[in-house]
């Protein structure tokens, strides 16, 4: 009786120890743990997990291979649909996707699909990586803007199909949010991110760093004098939001983007890097998403006493459940139903306190979540020497402003159809640049769809 | 990797480098800046572009040794490489998008302080190429710290040099010089542009306002990515928060909250002091 086996727990670094280092929290399964966990899968005739996966990984098929100890087959099954399995196994919100729809989850614990995917990816890497079949070169050049999940997934599929792909990355290292946003303790940079990018490069994809599309070059110049047949915009949502409350420009107030970029991309937490970062004593993080959890746990590791302030309740926290759980274990405090109204500074212009107001949940808003409303007269103050704003991000307007004929919506997102076609022929887009801030896996799904659309677009040009 | 084609010291603390960066050179316009990183362990340092040559594929940067990272840049020699050069960043100066009719008859005065003289140079050169009349004030503490003296003299109409100690030119700071040029010499200007230390730009703005001259300033704020991602560069302009990296670096001086900008510039000062002096008592 396969489903009588309880979900195999995953080994993790001790909470107290890891609160003071940046090493990966989760150790992952070993071979016997993975085989045992894989044996729990019921192999449903109509697998709901596959339908719930934005890139439609053939989950029961790869799990069957794991259960029989054939990790090589498991790896090639995953590779058919996912270019970044070691990343997805670690950062996907499985509880709302594959695992959330696992039939075992109805009465008990779902199969640990994410942990199994991660196991297969790590096992494969440790044995020299994947070999991926590639079509012969067709001579067409495609430019991809941004080397985050959307751009990498799009490039991976296009390169496999024989296209000559160049990715243009604004920062000095490829990876986008995988590199600057998600911390080392959740997604190791050398072991996982760099290795997965190396796989994409092994297909012949070129990555040109330090090119800001919209400044260094434009979409128009790529399609024009640089001779690309199509452009995919996967530039993400990099523009941080602030609250527009008094005191937000005091010293010690940071966007989560700045705080995380300094630590992740620029390695500020390491002594051998020059990047400065504030080692605050009392930190308030505003927001409840994955970025807020990442910022809170990073500030904690830098020696801070950290409180997350969130305007709804724990039930509405948009972060992955595992991240909230880990944050609590490590000692991050949560203050729910609270919203900042003002940041108060000392006489030198540094943060000294943050004034918040209590909230209560009212009617559901358009997202279906009950919207918080302030309780009059319930203001209170918290001591803090640093405030980190993790309120979400929106797409950077640089590309849209410098590309003729590219339609954007009122939130600054590039308008694209299901397959990534924008208002301008030959220009495709996907990921956070289109949806606003979402997840790695949704961006990858959009990148794959756009790759297919680019392929048929270029083929249609040949027929004319 | 971006090769250093030539390097010279303009003063003991200021170096000038010509760097091979063809994409940046081709796209650069007056008023824009770039970000460099010396090596894998270095910071991203925003620097102004002091010249560019699309044919040669080169950009010229001028760096003053202020902290650990800027010292590292200045320690590099001809033939060596910078790990990263990204740009051009920020918006070009307003006059770049002005038509010949709009520019005709306008008189500009540039107020350059210290290392801020370097980014003034391409602006002056550009305006002269479009037939606009340009005067330049260069100010420094002492004569040894005056840079771009000859280059500037060659391309502007009138060059005014001032030093705090009187070792060269007028004795006094740039604001006193500006007042003298306008009030005593009776010169008229339609527009002023100040680039230099934040405090200099603050006082240049106050003086220009008193003299009734509109003024543009170029804000050298703290930045990480330089593309609008981090928000470290936020400044209050006309009561609204703006990102200097993408909406600037040039703003109407009258509207800038300089006191806030100066305070924010010092945000990492204690960290930088630590980087210079690693304490071993732990």
Characterise this structure.
The complex is a heterodimer of chains A (464) and B (282). Chain A has 18 helices and 16 strands. In chain A, helix 6 packs antiparallel against helix 8. In chain A, strand 10 and strand 11 form a beta hairpin. The mean pLDDT of chain A is 94. Chain A starts with 14 loop residues before the first helix and ends with a helix. Chain A is of the alpha/beta class and 464 residues long. Chain B has 282 residues and is α/β, with parallel strands linked by helices. A seven-stranded antiparallel sheet of chain B has the order 6-1-2-5-4-3-7. A seven-stranded mixed sheet of chain B has the order 11-10-9-8-12-13-16, with helices on both faces. In chain B, strands 14-15 form a two-stranded antiparallel sheet. In chain B, helix 6 runs parallel beside helix 7 and helix 7 runs antiparallel to helix 9. The longest helix of chain B has 14 residues. The radius of gyration of chain B is 18 Å and the shape is globular. Classes of the chains: A alpha/beta (464), B alpha/beta (282). At the A-B interface, strand 5 and helix 13 of A face helix 1, strand 7, strand 14, helix 9 and helix 10 of B.
């Amino acid at each position: 009786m396969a489903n009588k086996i309880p979900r195999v727990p995953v080994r993790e670094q001790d909470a107290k120890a890891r609160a003071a280092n940046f090493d990966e929290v989760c150790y992952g399964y070993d071979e016997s743990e993975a085989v045992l966990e894989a044996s729990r899968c019921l192999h449903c005739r109509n697998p709901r997990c596959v339908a719930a996966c934005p890139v439609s990984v053939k989950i029961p098929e790869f799990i069957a291979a794991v259960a029989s100890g054939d990790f090589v087959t498991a790896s090639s099954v995953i590779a058919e649909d996912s270019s970044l399995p070691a990343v997805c196994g670690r950062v996907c919100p499985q509880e709302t996707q594959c695992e959330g729809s696992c039939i075992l989850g109805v009465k008990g614990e779902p199969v640990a699909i994410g942990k199994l995917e991660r196991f297969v990816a790590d096992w494969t890497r440790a044995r020299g990586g994947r070999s991926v079949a590639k079509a012969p070169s067709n001579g067409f050049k495609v430019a991809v803007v941004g080397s985050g999940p959307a751009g990498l997934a799009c490039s991976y599929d296009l390169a496999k199909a024989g296209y000559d792909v160049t990715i243009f990355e604004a920062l000095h290292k490829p990876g986008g949010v995988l590199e600057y946003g998600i911390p080392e303790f959740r997604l190791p940079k050398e072991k996982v991110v760099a290795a997965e990018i190396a796989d994409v490069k092994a297909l012949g994809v070129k990555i040109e760093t330090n090119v800001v599309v919209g400044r260094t070059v434009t979409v128009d110049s790529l399609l024009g004098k640089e001779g690309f047949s199509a452009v995919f915009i996967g530039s993400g949502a990099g523009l941080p939001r602030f609250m527009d409350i008094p005191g937000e420009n005091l010293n010690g107030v940071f966007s989560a983007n700045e705080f995380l970029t300094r630590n992740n991309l620029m390695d500020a937490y390491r002594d051998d890097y020059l990047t400065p970062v504030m080692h605050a004593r009392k930190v308030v993080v505003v927001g409840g998403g994955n970025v807020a959890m990442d910022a809170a746990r990073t500030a904690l590791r830098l020696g801070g006493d950290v409180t997350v302030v969130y305007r709804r309740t724990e039930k509405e926290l948009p972060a992955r459940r595992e991240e909230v759980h880990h944050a609590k274990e490590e000692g991050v405090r949560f203050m729910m139903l609270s919203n900042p109204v003002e940041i108060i500074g000392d006489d030198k212009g540094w943060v000294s306190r943050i004034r918040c107001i209590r909230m209560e949940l009212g009617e559901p808003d358009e997202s279906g979540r009950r919207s918080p409303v302030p309780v009059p007269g319930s203001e209170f103050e918290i001591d803090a020497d640093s405030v980190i704003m993790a309120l979400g991000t929106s797409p950077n307007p640089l590309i849209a402003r410098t590309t003729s004929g590219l339609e954007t919506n009122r939130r600054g997102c590039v308008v694209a159809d299901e397959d990534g076609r924008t208002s301008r022929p030959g220009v495709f887009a996907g990921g956070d640049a289109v949806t606003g801030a979402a997840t790695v896996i949704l961006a990858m799904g959009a990148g794959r769809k756009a790759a297919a659309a680019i392929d048929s677009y270029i083929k249609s040009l040949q027929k004319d | 990797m971006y090769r250093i084609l030539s390097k010279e010291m303009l003063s003991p603390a200021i170096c000038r480098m010509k760097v091979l960066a063809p994409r940046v050179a081709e796209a650069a316009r007056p008023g824009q800046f770039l970000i460099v990183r010396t090596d894998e362990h270095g910071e991203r340092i925003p620097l102004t572009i002091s010249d560019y040559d699309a044919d040669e594929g080169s950009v010229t940067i001028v760096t003053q040794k202020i902290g650990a990272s800027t010292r590292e840049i200045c320690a590099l020699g001809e033939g060596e490489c910078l790990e990263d050069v990204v740009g051009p960043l920020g918006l070009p100066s307003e006059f770049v998008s002005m038509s010949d009719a709009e520019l005709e008859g306008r008189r500009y005065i540039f107020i350059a302080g210290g290392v801020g003289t370097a980014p003034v140079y391409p602006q002056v050169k550009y305006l002269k190429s479009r037939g606009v009349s340009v005067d330049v004030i260069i100010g420094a503490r002492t004569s040894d710290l005056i840079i771009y003296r000859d280059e500037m003299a060659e391309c502007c109409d009138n060059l005014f040099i001032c030093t705090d100690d009187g070792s060269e030119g007028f004795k006094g700071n740039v604001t006193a010089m500006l007042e003298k040029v306008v009030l005593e010499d009776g010169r008229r200007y339609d527009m002023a542009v100040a680039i230099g230390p934040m405090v200099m730009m603050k006082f240049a703005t106050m003086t220009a306002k008193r003299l009734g001259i509109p003024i543009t300033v170029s804000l050298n704020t703290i930045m990480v990515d330089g593309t609008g991602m981090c928000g470290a560069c936020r400044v209050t302009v006309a009561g609204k928060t703006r990102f200097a990296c993408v909406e600037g670096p040039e703003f109407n001086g009258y509207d800038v909250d300089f006191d806030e900008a100066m305070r924010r510039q010092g945000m990492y000062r204690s960290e930088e002091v630590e980087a210079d002096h690693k304490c071993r008592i732990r």
